[in-house]
Write a sequence for this structure.
């Protein structure tokens, strides 16, 4: 279907209703959280549908990206279970899942195994939520234990700038299958 340039809204300036999308993994790597805990960070992008309707507007969704976090913290084993369960629902089960001990985790200690997921597609329910603007503390404030805080207007309402995808491993619904040719 062809659209006129002024009919298509790029990015997420307007929200859209929750919808099932085919997404592609563009990056998957092991890293550490700010607290120093091991985690797997997975970048995804929407592949299909390429557009969705929001009222009278058509929103271009193809290429919009999001980041998923798989916490590998031994004190929170549900993080690993949630990610592994999602990969299994997506038809991409890990070849091995190790016990949470001394950083021997998932397939994350072998970068080539994580890179094997790049380019894989699966279905996921995505929605969008307002992108809240934050004020970062100065180094002095940080030293005093002050964390970043949402920016607020004169009435105390949080200031937002557009929308962002609301994505989580729990939103994986299954393999990509044959959705819009995928």
């Amino acid at each position: 279907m062809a659209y006129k340039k002024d009919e298509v809204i790029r990015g997420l300036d307007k929200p859209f209703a929750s919808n099932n999308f085919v997404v592609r993994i563009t990056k998957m790597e092991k890293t550490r959280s700010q607290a120093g805990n091991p985690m797997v960070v997975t970048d995804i992008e929407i592949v299909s549908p390429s557009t969705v309707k929001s009222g009278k507007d058509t929103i271009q969704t193809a290429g919009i990206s999001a980041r998923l976090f798989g916490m590998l913290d031994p004190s929170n084993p549900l993080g690993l279970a949630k990610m592994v369960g999602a990969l299994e629902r997506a038809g991409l089960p890990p070849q091995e899942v190790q016990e949470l001990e001394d950083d021997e985790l998932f397939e994350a200690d072998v970068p080539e195994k994580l890179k094997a997921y790049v380019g894989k597609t699966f279905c996921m329910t995505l929605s969008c939520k307002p992108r809240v603007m934050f004020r970062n503390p100065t180094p002095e404030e940080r030293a005093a234990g002050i964390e970043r805080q949402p920016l607020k207007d004169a009435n105390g309402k949080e200031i937002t700038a557009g929308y962002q995808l609301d994505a989580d491993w729990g939103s994986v619904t299954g393999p990509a299958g044959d959705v819009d040719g995928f």
Q: What stands out?
A: The first strand starts at residue 8 and ends at 9. The helical segments are 77-89, 111-115, 139-143. Confidence is low (pLDDT under 50) at residues 1-10, 98-105.
